[in-house]
């Protein structure tokens, strides 16, 4: 994974993990307080990094 992480939507992240947005949302529910609220429809690079730390790097899976 590159050092730069770009902002991503829930749909983009779900696609990277190969699951539906509903499944991805269910995966994130227990971690919402750690991840924080999205800005508009996107997660910030910091939030995306937290998601990768929690769920694992999707390119490695």
What this model shows, in words?
α1 crosses α2. This protein has one domain (8-55). It has 61 residues and is mainly α. The mean pLDDT is 91. The protein has a two-stranded antiparallel sheet with strand order 1-2. Helices cover 51% and strands 7% of the residues. The chain contains 4 helices and 2 strands. The radius of gyration is 11 Å and the shape is globular.
In short:
The protein has 61 residues and is mainly α. 51% of the residues lie in helices and 7% in strands.
Tags for this entry?
61 residues, mainly alpha, two-stranded antiparallel ribbon, globular
N/C terminus separation: 12 Å
Shape descriptor reads globular
Low-confidence stretches: none
Q: How many E strands?
A: 2
How many helices? The count is: 4
Approximately how much helix is present in the residues? 40-55%
Oligomerization state:
single chain
The radius of gyration computed from the alpha-carbon positions, rounded to a whole number of angstroms, is: 11 Å
Query: In what order do the strands lie side by side in the largest sheet?
Result: 1-2
Question: Structural class, from secondary structure content?
Answer: mainly alpha
